[in-house]
């Protein structure tokens, strides 16, 4: 039997149990009332025969009636309590099954997406490298220097892509076990400036604007890890925008935190996907319809790195369109900075 059918069968059985239970509780409720009525009548007859009461109405002011009434109310409360408790337990059971099923579906979708994207991501740079090398090997002497250089550059670019993929896979595996960071006081402004320069050179058509506030504090962190965070966010902003992309990066100090915002005017992320984009291997939409290259590891790595630096990351909509990724990292005090420098140098 398929997963879906099994789920519906479970819901049906649980739903049936819920209805049956409510029905039995109702029946018990009415039987209890009938029994109460019968007891009243019996007691009325008995007490009238003994001459304790003169008319049947006198029974309703007697102690015996009060005792019967309080026992009846107690039973009524017991039935109600049991009904509510068991109904809620059944509803909670249905909810747990539903949530489990949703997770199962999401995880199998991710696995499928991962397998499809990793196969594609591994095969396409390899094919590119092979093609470039084959062309040089077969027709190298007929090609102009420019053409040969262009082919070599293409091969190097593909090799870099392959390298990034392997590094991302290794890093994400390491991040899930205990990963050791090299902490040192860092100037985020300098780090962002470098990445912006590098990305602007690689994407000359894009407009990447960096707007840092004056007099910013420093954070304690791993240079390589935080550089990778900035690269990932800027790369995404460029990748998920139509050309020419416009990316604005802001860096400011808020209370004891450094806030870095990467805003684009690209395709945006739906509310539902915003909840999932930080999951490992999650990519929006299905692999068949997706045009961009990627494995869905970038934001997972970013989230884990920021978590390891005691920071937070949030994703919101940009206005009028696009996405904003905002990171907050704790600023270190002068004392902590000195301590961190001493520890780094020792
Ligand atoms: P890679 O591992 O190479 O970075 P990726 O870019 O697909 O691959 P993530 O960076 O983890 O993976 O992003 C996950 C998904 O979130 C992307 O596939 C994309 O659909 C969506 N996404 C991320 N950043 C943006 C953005 N700035 N605008 C719109 N969608 C985005
Ligand atoms: Mg990415």
What attributes characterize this protein structure?
8 helices; five-stranded mixed β-sheet; binds magnesium ion; 346 residues; two-stranded antiparallel sheet; alpha+beta; binds adenosine-5'-triphosphate; 12% strand
Please give a quick description of this structure.
The chain has 346 residues and is an alpha+beta fold. It contains 8 helices and 7 strands, in the order H-H-H-E-H-E-E-H-E-E-H-H-E-E-H.
Structure, described:
The chain starts with a helix and ends with a helix. Strand 4 (246-254) and strand 5 form a beta hairpin. The mean pLDDT is 89. It has a five-stranded mixed beta sheet, covered by helices on one side. A two-stranded antiparallel ribbon has the order 1-3. 62% of the residues lie in helices and 12% in strands. The protein is elongated, with a radius of gyration of 35 Å. It contains eight helices and seven strands; from the N terminus they run H-H-H-E-H-E-E-H-E-E-H-H-E-E-H. Magnesium ion is lined by residues 232, 235-236, 294, 298.
Query: What is the radius of gyration computed over CA atoms, rounded to a whole number of angstroms?
Result: 35 Å
Sum up the overall morphology in one term.
elongated
Q: How would you characterize the largest beta sheet?
A: 5 strands, mixed
Please count the helical segments: 8
Count all strands and give the number. Answer: 7
**SSE series:** HHHEHEEHEEHHEEH
Helical fraction: 55-70%
Q: What's the pLDDT, averaged over the residues?
A: 89
Instruction: List ligands, each type once.
Output: adenosine-5'-triphosphate, magnesium ion
Give, in spatial order, the strands making up the sheet with the most strands.
2-4-5-7-6
Strand content range: 5-15%
Separation of termini?
Answer: 63 Å
Sequence stretches where pLDDT stays below 50 over 5 or more residues: none
Name the structural class. alpha+beta
């Amino acid at each position: 039997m398929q997963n879906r059918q099994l789920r519906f069968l479970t819901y049906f059985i649980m739903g049936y149990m819920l209805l049956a239970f409510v029905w039995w509780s109702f029946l018990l409720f009415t039987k209890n009332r009938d029994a109460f009525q019968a007891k009243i009548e019996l007691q009325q007859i008995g007490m009238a025969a003994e001459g304790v009461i003169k008319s049947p109405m006198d029974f309703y002011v007697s102690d015996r009636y009060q005792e019967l009434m309080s026992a009846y109310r107690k039973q009524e409360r017991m039935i109600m309590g049991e009904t509510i408790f068991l109904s809620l337990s059944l509803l909670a059971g249905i909810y747990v099954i539903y949530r489990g099923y949703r997770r199962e579906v999401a995880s199998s979708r991710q696995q499928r997406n991962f397998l499809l994207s990793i196969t594609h991501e591994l095969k396409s740079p390899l094919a590119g490298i092979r093609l470039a090398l084959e062309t040089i090997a077969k027709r190298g002497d007929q090609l102009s220097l420019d053409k040969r250089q262009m082919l070599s550059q293409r091969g190097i670019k593909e090799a870099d892509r392959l390298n990034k993929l392997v590094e991302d896979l290794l890093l994400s595996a390491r991040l899930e076990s205990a990963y050791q960071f090299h902490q040192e006081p860092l100037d985020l402004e300098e780090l962002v400036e470098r990445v912006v320069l590098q990305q602007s050179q690689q994407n000359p058509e894009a407009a990447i604007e960096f707007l840092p506030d004056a007099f910013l504090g420093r954070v304690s962190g791993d240079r390589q890890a935080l550089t990778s965070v900035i690269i990932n966010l800027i790369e995404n902003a460029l990748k998920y925008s139509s050309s020419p992309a416009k990316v604005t990066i802001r860096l400011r100090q808020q209370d004891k935190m450094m806030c870095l915002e990467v805003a684009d005017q690209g395709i945006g992320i739906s509310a539902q996907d915003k909840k999932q984009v930080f999951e490992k291997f999650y990519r929006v939409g299905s692999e068949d319809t997706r045009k961009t290259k990627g494995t869905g590891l970038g934001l997972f790595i970013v989230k884990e790195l920021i978590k390891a630096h005691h920071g937070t990351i949030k994703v919101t909509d940009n206005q009028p369109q696009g996405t904003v990724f905002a990171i907050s990292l704790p600023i270190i005090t002068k004392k902590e900075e000195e301590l961190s420098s001493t520890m780094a140098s020792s």
